[in-house]
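Dissemination and training. As part of the outreach component of the grant, students in the summer workshop were shown how a complex can be specified as a set of sequence lines and then modelled as a single object. The example used during the hands-on session is reproduced here so that future cohorts can follow it. Participants entered these lines:
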Amino acid sequence: DIQMTQSPSSLSASIGDTVTMTCRASEVLNSYLNWYQQKPGMAPKLLIYGTSRLQSGVPSRFSGAASGTVFTLTIANLQPEDFATYYCQQSYSTPRTFGQGTKVEVK
Amino acid sequence: QITLEESGPPLVRPTQTLTLTCTFSGFSISDEGMGVAWIRQAPGKAPEWLALIYWDDDKRFSPSLRSRLTITKDTANNQVVLTLTDMDPVDTATYYCAHRLFWRGYHKWGDAFDVWGQGTMVIVSS
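and obtained this result:
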């Protein structure tokens, strides 16, 4: 199985900040990496697929990038509704695997 | 508009078999490229992908659960059914079904899960 390691596990930020989180894959994914946002009691919501493709309806302050096996999710101008947990997930191979999550909290 | 809804028992006894139904609308699972996945999430944990069924009835399973999982589709009734045998308290989780979004990547088809059901909580306890 491809292992996905997210860092940090949590971060504290303020409204208007730019935050970046990382997801490292144990193997090459060739851009097949997705990001989800999850709020308590809710199902995960797809934000970005294929490393950098913004899902329809997702604000443009969310962006994704990659360098080798390291993927990043950046949220610019953090908004109140962005405080949540973020998961990466690879779709390069079966089983599809998720990272353990990065929780974005209010500073 | 795509929607999915999970249904099943909230409580299952250890060693019993769990049967969950995903009823969906807004797409046909028989259309090329379509698929429905099951994903579960134990309390306070990350999501765990379980299985995926494709439009052509191809199926993929989590290797760690492969011997206990079955996934089938009922195209006429827009349903996908997951069964998980020999339930254990560690299987306590919220179970989600999700629609497969797919696209042509450079090397092969890629996918993600763009629409999820609200989830159904399953507790395994005697």
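Chain A touches chain B at residues 1, 30-32, 34, 36, 43-46, 49-50, 53, 55, 87, 89, 91-92, 94-101 (CB under 8 Å). Students were then asked to discuss how this feature might be tested experimentally.
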